[in-house]
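re the bet — no i am not wrong, look at it urself. input seq straight from the record:
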Amino acid sequence: MQEKCHYKLFKAGKNWCTMMITLVAVATGVSLASTNVHADVATQTAPTTTLTSSPQNGQVNAGNNNSNSGDQVKDNSSEKNNQQTNADYKTPVNAGYIDSVTADTDNANTIDVSGWHATNQYKTGMDHYLIALNGDNNQELYRGKVETVSRPDVQKVYPKAPISENGGFKASIPVDRLNNASSVRFVSRYTNDANGEINGGADFWYPTIQTKAGYLDNFKVNGNNIEVSGWHADDQSVNKPNHFLILFDKTKNKEITRQAVKTLSSSDVARNGYNEIVNADHSRFSANFTITPAMLGDKLTIVSRYSSDAKNGEGNRSDYWFNNSLKLGKDKNAGYLDQFRIDNKSNKVIVSGWNANDQSTILTNHYLILFDKTANHEVARQAVKTLASADVAQNGFADVNNADQARFTTSFDITPAMVGHQFVLVSRYTDDATYGEGNHSDYWYNQAVDVYTNQAGYLDQFHVNGANKQVVVSGWHAADASALLKNHYLILFDKTANREVARENVKVTASADVAQNGYGNIQNAGQSRYSTTFDITPAMVGHQFVLVSRYTDDAKNGEGDHIDYWYNNNVNLNNNQAWLDHFTQNGTTISASGWHADDASMIDSHHFIILWDLSKGREIARKEVTNVASPDINNVYGNILGANNARFTVDFNIDGQYAHDAMQLVSRYSNADNGEGNYSQVWLTNQYLNLYQNPSWMYQINYSQIQPSGPVGHNIGPGYEGIKTQLVKDRIGTGYQHNTYTTADAYRVMSVQRAHGLPATGWVDYNTWVALGLPADQWTSIDSYIAPLGAGAGASRQDHIEAMIRQAYQYMGKPWLAGCSSSPAYGVDCSGLVMQALYAGGINPTSCSSIYHGFPGNEWNSRNLFADPHFMNVSYNDRQRGDLVFYYQPGTHTIWHVAIYLGNNQVIESWPPRVMVQPIVNGQRNVIAGIRRVFA
């Protein structure tokens, strides 16, 4: 015989403690006690209440449930009720209690309810119904007649009520009729209507009873799983013993998957307010759902189901929808490196950080990849487990699926091939556990680390020892890479031919001074010195060289993995220096001695001295000479090959027809025995024979290009004149005024400077010049212009005069501009014109210069030229072509103008408004102060 089991949902008996479960407050006409209640104590009565006055939704009748549902029990309306004899119909009474609600598991299909209902509204013959409502919305779930139970304890409390002793009842409700409700509310009704509708009598509403409850302790992503744990207590588990968990996609509004789960012990649930639900002490569950790609980006929830269908979880069922939602990320990918550094002691790259990636839920294998940015390829990868990272989830990344399991730490061995390169880290989630390929999602960190790129070096010596034909090298090279690259090489590199010419394996020696003077942070700073020499070969002559210091893992050849340090120092093997100690003539015999040191002498072994006739413009003799020792020259020019053996002497016997011609010597080293072939030569310019020259007290004629005198690229401020000043004034709109930079000009320039973010000084520097829109190259080219020589060595006095006048004519028609003396592309003033003409003739006056001519106080350089003692003072009547003519300002003895005499009482001059040819005297400048001769 099967044992009959009762699972108590509410404590029954005379002493009924208030339930710990959630009670919904009774609506109008319902008596509730907030403390312990005894049935022998009268409860407060309430006005008669019908179901139509329910505060939720009016009528109890909810469609399907009615008195004809087959739920009626024994009809006791005809029983004699002795209580009616002394009934009091005037004193309001309407009270009741539910004593117990139990599950009858005999057939596992009913809920048994017992209680009582006393009221003064009862009339003999009325039917007694029990109605079950959905506690959430008052929809009727069940109604049926009750079985009357004698309750003398109630009659003692309500002796005058027409129905009290016979107000006790019991009823059995099929579990399935509860219609998956999470709470139930019972209503006791006395009525004259055979179907249980309202017709006289009274209703009594009992407190709401919770029939199911649940809570999720855990609903989260862990790796590629969704972890779920919690509990679901449900009265309907009585006849629906199969427990399923359903993962439901709220975004797509459909079930994703379900699984059958076992319910586990849950005494804590029963102890904490849910002991009246039938399986409260056995309602816990846990499960894992595998995340699929289709789930990413969607919002999910959990449904707990008790079902009569053990196989599929369908059939009769009771569901509990949890309020919790879990949004699976899809595209979020974040990361940070806490460490990405080189550990010199262990020769490792140390890595730690985190990478939270939504895709990690489906790409469950984590790899770290070390990527070489320099070589643009991967060098290493490791499978690395992710670690707990609650701090990541708590600090702004909780919406990323694996934010609480995203940390990592590892290290990579440094190999020689990595030295000198820059690396970045890539964190990868992939579905390929073996190789880290397949489908994957990468995170590239911005941080970069340089592997052993820290290095420094200095050359103490890098020069040529010409006597020994060697390049001498000494210095130091400290490099972190030396920890792995143990072999040290020095490489001599030919910059001219763009190739290496020699290398040597050179050991490094102690260098405590290097470590002590700012380089102690480099690994081998205390052992980084070296010295060596390279032999010079003929193929190196004429080329330029640099030194490369290399640490390498290749001991044999110095190749393999390596790191190089290129020094900035240069060595040149194209040096050529010479000097004439004396150059004399005795009749038709010309003698000379001097020295010529030339790197080319190593390959061009024949030394010739060539006698050049400047007057005829051709060679008239050559002789091969034998050099002799020159230790004095080697002391000064020891960096030139052959400087230790560079002296020569030579004699020429010439034909009488050349005896009075101007002569110059050429020293030539040639690879041919006749002095032709390949050769390197120098024109000896420090001495000439029979060359036209001014007397020593006058300016000496230059036979090489005159160089600028003064600061090329100077700034412009108030008081300056010159071409640059005029161009600036044209840009700021004051060029029509006198060619002087004024304070007003400075204020205009300051506005330009402010507009371009430059210091507002009012002075024009290079940056301001460019900001004004003026060509950058003019900043220096205007200053550096010096007229080219118009007469070379061997030229006559007249040649120099004509060169001077030809240059002056280059300016014809150009505007007169105060303080200007530059190229013929611009205007010029009187003394500026004369200066450029003098330069073309080979004269470089020290009393003035074309650059300083535009500086404040130099406008009147004509006065400097007039007072210059290096020009010959001649009388007006002795004036000749090429002389300088100076003028007084009328009525004074102040020099105010200079011109160049052309002959025939004509001068070329710069006089407002332009450069022109004028009579030597005219109405504007008719007082001549004097004549100065340039060439004697």
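see?? The first strand starts at residue 6 and ends at 8. told u. also The chain has twelve helices and 48 strands. so pay up
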